[in-house]
Amino acid sequence: MSEDYREFLERLERERQEQLESLERDRREHLEEIERRREAREDEKEWRIEQEKARLEEQKRLKSERAQELLISLQAKLEHLSHDHDMVIRRDVAMNPSTSQATLDRLSRDHEIVVRREVAGNASTSPATLDHLSRDPEVVVRRYVAENPAASQATLDRLLHDDEAVVRRRVANRTST
Questions:
Q1: Do 165 and 90 reside in the same domain of the chain?
Q2: What is the dihedral of CA 115, 143, 98, 108, to 10 degrees?
Q3: Contact status, residue 148 vs residue 121, Cβ threshold 8 Å
Q4: Under DSSP, is residue 124 helix (H, G, I), strand (E, B) or coil?
């Protein structure tokens, strides 16, 4: 083999090797670029998820604030209506689960039996108000107290000794379930 031919083959081999190395470099760079883009997409995806979570939390907070404002507004309206001269209006306020405990406590002293009865039956009525109503002269009011899940054990114990059998039965039926 001539020297020129050997140099020619060596040069061809070097060029082939350089081309292979260049292709390998290009392949690695391409794979690195793909990986960078994937990571960027994942980072963007995580960022979008975080943004969506933050947006949902803000919506939840605003809804909660709005609900609280509405409840306060509703309770103020119920408080105003609880002073109405119409017994039916006061009864409806006493039945409303959104009526404040302070309003229910005041209505527990209403002169109308049906108003006191509905306060006694309202699950939002405080145990202290129910205890007061457990001494009401009207049987129907005491019966509603006996059925109210918010009544304290002390109140129920007192009603177990009520003069009226219907009240004692309500307490007994409640404690047996």
A1: yes
A2: 40
A3: yes
A4: coil
For residues 151 and 97, membership in a common domain is answered with yes
Does 30 lie in the same domain as 97? Answer: no
CA dist list (Å): 67 to 62, 72, 95, 125:
8, 9, 20, 21
Contacts of 127 (CB under 8 A, 6+ apart): 150, 151, 152, 155
Q: CATH number, domain at 111?
A: 1.25.10.10
Range of the domain at 92: 86-176
Q: How far apart are CA 83 and CA 110, in angstroms?
A: 10
Output the furthest CA–CA distance in the chain (Å, rounded). Answer: 130
Of the CA atoms within 13 Å of residue 167, those in its CB half-sphere come to 25
Sequence-ordered list of residues with C-beta below 8 angstroms from that of 138, at least 6 positions apart, any chain:
113, 116, 117
Say yes or no: 171 and 100 in one domain. yes
Question: What's the whole-model pTM score?
Answer: 0.64
Of 123, 91, 96, 121, the closest CA to residue 107 belongs to 91
Per residue in 73-103, pLDDT (tens digit) is 888 999 999 999 999 999 999 999 999 999 9
Same domain, 102 and 44: no
- Considering the domain architecture, whether residues 98 and 172 belong to the same structural domain is answered as yes
